[in-house]
Amino acid sequence: MTSPFADRIEQAMDILREQQSKMTEVRKELSESSASVTSKDRMITAKVGPQGQVISLTFHTTGYRSMAPAELSKALVDVLNEARADMGTKVIESMRSFDGMGEMLRQSLHVGPPPGEGAEGLDLDELLAPLRAMRPNYEAELTGRTSAKQEEFNG
């Protein structure tokens, strides 16, 4: 028979494994994704990768040849910025599936009784006491005595 705390730790680990698997999937999808934007006049298309890196610039007409340098520069900057913004939106949307993960873990490790069970919860301090006792200088911490080095480090 396992303890309630061990069961909760195992539940939390299951949640973490599931989230890790999802993250691996999302990372793979994002590494293969891109965003393309074509200028309003349909002269230029910019394609960017998942980190906003330029993958390609395509000129659909020769109209850019007669443009003033500043005008061409502005057209390129605009189409690249829009493509990067679209890619950023894709990344944000992909990450939204991980919203609330911390709360989910907190709930799975809740120290009180699980819903529907008795009024007794787990005494977390009691459960962690053996681990705390293994810490170096544990006895000194109990009595309030610490070494000079430790005081300097914490000071």
Short description:
The chain is mainly alpha-helical and 155 residues long.
Largest sheet: 3 strands, antiparallel
H-E string: HEEEHHHHH
Structural class: mainly alpha
Number of helices: 6
Shape: elongated
Q: Regions with pLDDT < 50 over 5+ consecutive residues?
A: 148-155
Measured by DSSP, the beta-strand proportion falls in: 5-15%
Number of domains: 2
From the N-terminal CA to the C-terminal CA, the straight-line distance is 46 Å
Helix content, binned percent: 55-70%
Structure description:
The chain is mostly helical. It folds into 2 domains: 1-109, 2-Layer Sandwich (Ybab, Chain: A), CATH 3.30.1310.10; 121-155, no CATH class. The chain has 6 helices and 3 strands, in the order αβββααααα. The chain has a 3-stranded antiparallel sheet with strand order 1-2-3, with helices on one face. β1 (35-38) and β2 form a beta hairpin. α1 runs antiparallel to α3 (101-108). The radius of gyration is 28 Å and the shape is elongated. The model is unreliable at 148-155 (pLDDT under 50).
